[in-house]
Amino acid sequence: MFDRLHELLAAHASEFAIAHDTTDRYGLGAPVGPATMRAWGGKARTPNIPVGWVEIRKTYVSYHLMGIDGNTKLLLALSQPLRARMQGKACFNFTTVDEALIRELESVTAESFSALRRAGFIGAATGDT
Questions:
Q1: Is residue 33 part of a domain?
Q2: pTM for this one?
Q3: What is the percentage of the chain residues whose pLDDT exceeds 70?
Q4: Is residue 129 in some structural domain?
Q5: Radius of gyration of the chain (CA)
Q6: What is the domain range of residue 8?
Q7: What is the pLDDT of residues 46-72, one digit of tens each?
Q8: Cα 82 from Cα 100, distance rounded (Å)
């Protein structure tokens, strides 16, 4: 399961910095955008923020998408089976591969990244970190 979800994120690696790349965690990050700076009161806390990552947990694999948190349009478009895998505001947990959900998550991933850019939360990638 980890490998399949890793592939989803790795497809976007050229757009972002690779923040983590280990056997149990893979993540992408992007430079802080103007909307994030405003939310932080104009003071940078870190140069990059995570946009998505997948990690192996004790009994499941978690897939995190920061662009889905607070994105009502994207949340409402989720199928019930994918929504059932949501934990918290931006995480999906999996124990088995379900290709239909993987295909949906592929689309959701692309849209979440686009939404972060459009809203100004992330800037252009500067390469691997």
A1: yes
A2: 0.92
A3: 96
A4: no
A5: 14
A6: 2-92+104-118
A7: 999 999 999 999 999 999 999 999 899
A8: 9
